[in-house]
């Protein structure tokens, strides 16, 4: 039981099926080598000179005219859409046409964009995820055919560059609410779309209250931008190596004014073409006759694999085959007794975005690691995995930590940042809270093995000479014996080791100061103990300062970036190596508690926001 009255549970990891990371056959592994080789070839062949433009958005968002309206809703709109689509009804013919379209997009991509733009788009696609997970999603979507997978990947990269998708993430709720008409009030604020809890596979469940969606209550462009932004954002709630979500469309109260055929198909087509292997299952719960008829008309526009994931249900028991009743909301037949309450964005919550130089420094360092990963992977491919495997595993960890630390400088906050579902003190950790009618409160906590705290500790041990397998096994042991620590903090990291010998980590006081200098991603210091020893103070030169480093190691160079207003980002008088704001000749006293701990702060007077997008009016003293 936690101190705030919630019973915390950690679910068993979901065993990934064949064809997923860490469960590949020899044939699958060979395909992965070939796919990486094909990706490098595409990048090397790019001959264009265009980068992703700041003007953004060349997507066809649709037009809000009476003629367009007549084609969107109802059975008539669905029939017209099928007739005018030009898409083959037979699945084989449809797949061939899709392949031709993707190949054409690949040619346009190569002629329009340069190699660096393609690489930036790819790493923007991966973000904090293991790049192999990304490759495997595309391979599975195209049935392990290398040519078709390459074309699909290229088509997706072109779409991401053309639409400037990441600008929606950069804006966050605050920016999108200001720039996009009805973005917040018609989707988030009224509870039309939200994510809460997981299924049996630890995959997040996104609820869509279809009956609240009035087709023409917002511009088409707003609906489409909301869709693609949330497919990108929901990935933050997925714990690797998992890569899927559940979509639950609640059709209670559904009528003709809700039958938005165009955008429902846009959801499925995006999942099919640009977010492959992201959908686990899509439920249409309590769908009326009109929606079922519309579906039977337009389902032939979709790939058979995606089509098969759409299921109609009428009873909670059908949903409970996928979602535990103790994770399912009460209003839909489950046990979770909580109501929607939107936590609005606040001015200043994205203030780190204003630090342009620091943002560039962190992105440049992240791209340095990306380039290193690419070089190691080229060699890994050339040797068919005989060389480079260990280095790739280390770099995957570094890339994830690096992106965690870059995110606050470019990505605007989402509601799940504000309500606490996404830990900002230990990025990568996710919590779901399930209150019940009998007063019992369960907090499900996920992401330990891929969280920032785990990765920093593992990388410190690897930097001291430990093998990757040793560091990962130690994580599992710490989780079993309870020594892993608090799920929402990086402040209980053990002292970094100074070496590794005879299967054991060494903690030599002589080199403790050097170990404290190690920055696991190379942003603010050396990445290995050998490099750190060269920069550490000589014996006797550090005195009391070195003793303090031994007592509180790894905080200065590996501290979690502080979100919020500049006055709260103070750590011993500096903000990420820069001069901190001063008041009357000294650093802001208000900011010191949170900053001294090296944790995230959302700006202003922070409140712990918990529950179903709700908040407890409880001050936090960091």
TrEMBL record:
Stored SUPFAM superfamilies: CRAL/TRIO domain, CRAL/TRIO N-terminal domain
Region Disordered: start-end pairs: 531-605
Compositionally biased residues, Low complexity: 539-552
InterPro entries: CRAL-TRIO_dom, CRAL-TRIO_dom_sf, CRAL/TRIO_N_dom, CRAL/TRIO_N_dom_sf, PITP/CRAL-TRIO
A Pfam family assignment: CRAL_TRIO
CRAL-TRIO domain span: 183-340
Protein name: CRAL-TRIO domain-containing protein
Species this chain originates from: Acaromyces ingoldii
